Amino acid sequence: MENKSIYVIYDRNVESFALKLAEGRPALAITADEAHKTMDTVLDICRWLLAQGANRDAIVWAVGGGVTTDLVGFAASIYKRGVRYANYPTTLLSQVDAGVGGKTGVNLDSYKNMIGVTKFPIYTRILPEVLATLPARELRSGAAEMLKTFIIDNKGDRYEKAVKVLSEPKIDFAALAPLIEAAAAVKRKIVEQDPYEENLRRCLNLGHTYAHAIEWYQHTHPTADPMTHGEAVAVGMVQAALLSERLGLCKAGLAEKLRKDLQACGLPTELPCPEAELEAALWKDKKAEKGIIHFVLIKKIGKVIIKDLDDLHQPAA
Q1: Are 296 and 202 spatial neighbours (Cβ–Cβ below 8 Å)?
Q2: Is pTM beyond 0.90 here?
Q3: What is the CATH number of domain 1-127?
Q4: Is the confidence at residue 208, as pLDDT, over 50?
């Protein structure tokens, strides 16, 4: 493929890796964080593509974490009514989640991913070797999404294997690599069966109802050390397990098991504020429709269900 048809957009935090990958192709650095996950950044990307002379035959490479793949995928979906894009995820979080499923989008004010479309990359290239350069906290943030995937599908006891690898003080990347591929494969399989989240794909939102509410809370109540997305998902999974226990959907003790496993992997498990303060955001989440939330609950490790709730204590009538 000729270089002139490929345009590389990358998180400035991975510049050396991205420019090496680009091999002289046009490249644009962006600030890929939640504060810049906005329509303004998407429009900046579109303006840059236009200035570069990108046509309908362009392929845009997204090099970075989940914020990068979300931004670039959304920009590619609307630039000239849609051009192709490919993901080169550089974080564990994006390799097992955001870089795989075709969801793109940006935040609206303080609400997570409120504007976006489903547009699938033409491919996603998993590069485990880049993970060795990540800060420990960022790596363990991605661990939450990996564990989430294996709570959904625990074929081959992958959840237990992942907890064992991820709880080590020093990660064995050779042991982690097949688990990354397995998690990505689980997500691809689910997405292929339900690309537009009409039913089965909703299970991938395990932990995310509370996670998005936590992110809203942190945006409206800034702190010096906010949780990352993955950390918020870890807390959200514990909340999902607690709710599952209250509703009698799983055996007592599941939430405590998850809490211990996640803590062993270096992840937080407690809400950053009283639950009541998250109420407004919980009901503005994308998974809330017509007075109910499509909440992902856990029956056991390896089996989840989607329950329509009209409050967070009793099933909808």
Answers
A1: yes
A2: no
A3: 3.40.50.1970
A4: yes
